[in-house]
Design a protein that fits this description.
Blueprint lengths: L3 H10 L4 E2 L8 H11 L5 H12 L1 H9 L5 E6 L5 H12 L4 E7 L2 H14 L8 E2 L2 H11 L3 E6 L9 H13 L6 E7 L4 H7 L6 H16 L9 E8 L4 E8 L3 E5 L2 E5 L4 E8 L3 H11 L2 E7 L5 E7 L1
Parallel strand pairs: 1-11, 2-3, 2-5, 3-4, 5-6
Antiparallel strand pairs: 6-13, 7-8, 8-11, 9-10, 12-13
The structure holds N,N-dimethyl-L-histidine (AVI).
Amino acid sequence: MNSQFYKDVIAGLGSTPKHLDSKYFYDAAGDKLFQDLMSCDEYYPTNCEMEIFTSQTAEICEAMMGNGDAFDLIELGAGDATKSSHLLRYLIDNKADFSYMPIDISDNVISLLNITLPVTLPGINITGLNGEYFDMLKKAAAMSNRRKVVMFLGSNIGNMPVADAQEFAKELRRHLSPGDMVFVGIDLKKSPKTVLAAYNDSEGITKQFNLNLLHRINRELHGNFNIDNFDHYAVYDPETGACRSYLISLTQQEVMVGDKLIHFEKDEYIFMEISQKYTMAQTEEMAIQAGFKATAHFTDSKNWFTDAVWLA
Ligand code: AVI
């Protein structure tokens, strides 16, 4: 067992405090749980961003199309492209000269998009890229020198601590040229109770979503986690805007992962994920710090979520 997944799990569970990387949530079972979560009312970010895309489709697409010159529409972490499909349909119907380049770490996701999108969106020009975001951005730049519009939706940027998100925005800027654009979905600060309910939903989907990573370790890394011995705990700090998820060990216990023995004290936690919330002013500051101009933002009717336009 030499995989990066194994190395990261052993390093994370061997640290004090223990942590796991939320990028490993998304195996097939995790993808399914995330789909369930996105259709759960308490998990508001998806509904908010969908409202933005459906109620302001034309305005968003016109901003992307600019003066009408050809462009590459690159989506970081495209998933099943449900949300972006709204925009893609409008762009195709309005004869925009663009090619869609979804980038995803999952080979499965990219193969599926390459097959399904030409069927659901006839006329689409799609080139799926499978790999790490910045490697694939370099590849996209080598493939064409057209203007780039990079979409990073769904508050994925929130799964990075603030300093990392800032660094990510800077790195993104370094990969773009003047005139290129970023369209980034960011979850905004709001009632702490609303935020917390999204990450501690009453149906327990978020709990299953987090626990699935222990199942995944059992399945793929010869782990023997007793899942019933762990509980999900989420906390939101309205001051910093950080929502954090943990798994709590309900008992003192020993767990094997491969040939490594991991000891848990009763009540010891594993830090699982950060879902950072921002004020509008903080999003604009992040854009400026990274060398972008924040030229527009599209918000839902409750002002809970923004899709911001950053110009390189
Ligand atoms: C993918 N990401 C933006 C989600 C979020 O809101 O942080 C992942 C998630 N974790 C728990 N619920 C949803």
